[in-house]
Amino acid sequence: MTMTCNHLIHCRALALLCGVIAASGISRQASADPPAFGGGQTTALANEVTNFKGKLKGLERGVLSITREDGVDVMVQPPDDIAGFTFVATAKPAFLQRGNLVRFSGAFGPTGMAAAPIDRVEVFQPVPAQRLRGHARENFVPGVYPVDRHPPNQPVALAKYNIVGSLMGINAAGVMMVQAGKQPLQVQLAENAAFELRYNNLNLAKEGDPVTVVGFYQPPDDTKVKAERVTITTDRVYGEATDETPRRRSSRRTRRETAEEKKDVAEEGKDAAEEKKDAAEEKAAGEEAAEIKKDEADEAE
After folding, report:
1. 3-state secondary structure of 176
2. Which of 13, 65, 206, 246 could form a disulfide with 57 if both were Cys (CB 3.0 to 4.6 A apart)?
């Protein structure tokens, strides 16, 4: 009887303790100390959330330096999820090259034909697969992905898909050819289709580019932030005629132009030599005429 009562008291006490923890809203995961900036450990129960805008200042040892809108420099550790770090810019078709990775969405019929022209295409660069989490892989790994993850049992006339693949080309009629994994696709682009660069790196970023940061800091120091999301933007348009990085000219064309320039130089040199020769002959003829005239004068005397 005593053992039964003790056991009952213990169970009630355990239930009461669990109820207090549940009422406090502290989960096992939330109570764990999150890593501080730089990977160290902290004794605080939680980090403070921060959301700010600023200008990119630089990158040092994998840490971003950002000048906040209030003029304070903040050190920002990039997100662990590479998909949370994005450089966004506008591009023109002239910037695109065969082999670029692209992604877009559209409604497609059973034959693989798009129901409407594609009006928006994202261009991205490859990222390490091991750094992708969950469904984020579907944004980077070439393939055809249905938007509806629970399709109906009966076939439908149209279904929406997310397409990820390698750009094969865009013809004069505005048809874009893409190799989406094992599936080749041809889609008509809208007349004013928008091309957006979404790079998960700093390859095109420059000092002074606008930055938005969402992350955490350990109070009271809000100048050291562990980012959850970093977005860098710019008003530069890549692929325009004024683009600072001109498209590479083919070596064949360069060699042909160089040969033509050399040929022109050789012909100009030849013309100059002939003109010099003509001038010398004219001079000799003049001297000969002068001699004849002198001889005639001498004979007359």
Report:
1. strand
2. 65
